[in-house]
Amino acid sequence: MAWQRCGQLYTARGNFVWAKSHAALPTPVHIDADCYRFFFSTRDDLNRSSISWVDIELCGSPKIVAEASAPALSFGTPCMFDDSGASVGSVVLDGTEARLYYLGWNLGVVAPWRNSIGVAAGDVARARFERLYLGPILDRSPEDPFTLSYPWVLRLGPKDWRMWYGSNTKWGASSADMHHVLKVASSVDGLTWSRRQMLVMRPEIPGEYAFARPTIIEDRGMFRMWFAVRGDRYHIGYAESRDGVTWSRNDKTFGLAPTAAGWDSEMTCYPCAFTHKSRLYLAYNGNGYGRSGFGLAVWDDA
Asked: Whole-model pTM?
């Protein structure tokens, strides 16, 4: 049993002023039959991120069949919480509406950036989303005093929404001074969130100092989470839980490490797990935090 890498699937071609580089945080949403719309974050020449997409058909060898000509969501206007960028977190279908939970970027002075979490609503087929609020739905608070990171949201019941997200517990002069953990929040409507300081994952292995971009699927009463682990270099870790709060790691079996050479030899990061026709897939980024695009792996039970 192991991940079989399908290779590098997409890189930004620089055809548009809003999409000059990067295809980070691939987030697939099922469209029809074997086709998935992969939302991702791209950047302009000023490093401001917008959310774009490509359609990929999984029948046989994965192949791109369509590509965005306009962003699904762009960065905000000056002084908004996302005026320096909008990065995809997760897409949740709620009846006929789709909600896009995303990360807003503000550039800092002492610290390089400050992040908070926003929400937009729209239509996956039209690939257009509009902000529900001018401000974020989760920002710095007594529970999260420094900065937040990529949200992953599941709707478990009519009034049971969960969000797993990242939060700094400290920050210093360099990135290695960062201590970034994963937390969970709850909501009855997916818009107003309760934070009870519920820490779910923290760096404990020597050399690790940050977790990012949790992605979670439910599998026969078990929550299964893949996430990016930052130490000397990024790799993809794995954990599982019965309640979504207490997790047990098993990176060795279900994680994904960098390869010896190629587009994902320096790092593997920003995973997104999904199932299609009873097969488990993992979309992920390689070198350069998405500058080298994204690829796909499929779990081989043999």
From this structure: 0.96
